[in-house]
Amino acid sequence: MLTAKQKRRENIAEYILYLWQLEDMLRALDLSPEKIYSTLVEPHAELEPEQKQTLFFWYMDLVNLLRTENKEQAGHLEHTLHLIADLNDLHLHLLKAPVGKEHGYDQVFAALAPELPKLKTAIARESDLAADGISDMEACFRALYSVMLCRLKGTATQEDGPGAAKKAEAAERYVKDVLEVVSPVVARLAAIYRAAERGELDLYKDMA
């Protein structure tokens, strides 16, 4: 909970990815209050009983949202999808507005732009989404989360046998390719979002 609040204040992109990771973690625990408490709450020996209760209730609020939105098995909470939609609106604005050029956003995005159609097609192939219905930023976040999962699986399971080395190499190459083009865009966008949210940046400066 405290981690989520800190990430929300400091980096909107990390906050979204953190919540997505929590969604999968809660599902892995079968959305069970007993498993959630023993796995995610009880180990925090530094917390007072009241703080543990608050943390537990926060996790259960997320569980209730997953159930309310019928996402017990898969999918992401509307809260995060709305934030991504806001970021996509900002992304589109920065590509047109002088402030985007002033902060170099158009140049950072130029490296990603040619890869987006392939990225959206790959995401659509792995999900029930249509490629033309995936926004630029949703594609970026889904790619980053896929990389996060790929790395977690890579450290959790070390394959042996024929082809294992090639699979590991291909996975690592995929991770590297995605991070090289997607990460700079999301990082720059998150920084601009944070500055605008704090009133440190006028997004409509010099617009007619």
Order of helices and strands: HHHHHHHHHH
Q: How is the main sheet built?
A: none
Q: Report helical residue fraction.
A: over 70%
Radius of gyration (CA) equals 19 Å
* Count of structural domains: 2
Coarse shape: globular
Strand content: under 5%
Oligomer: single chain
Structural class: mainly alpha
List segments where confidence is low: pLDDT < 50 over at least 5 consecutive residues: none
CA distance, first residue to last residue: 42 Å
Number of helices: 10
- Number of E-type strands: 0
Mean pLDDT: 89
Architecture overview:
- Helix content is 73%, strand content 0%.
- The protein starts with a helix and ends in an 11-residue tail after the last helix.
- The model has no long low-confidence stretch (mean pLDDT 89).
- The protein has two domains: 2-68, no CATH class; 78-197, no CATH class.
- The chain has 208 residues and is an all-alpha fold.
Short description:
The protein has 208 residues and is mostly helical. It has two domains: 2-68, no CATH class; 78-197, no CATH class. The protein has helices spanning 2-10, 12-28, 33-41, 49-68, 78-96, 98-102, 105-112, 116-125, 136-156, 164-197.
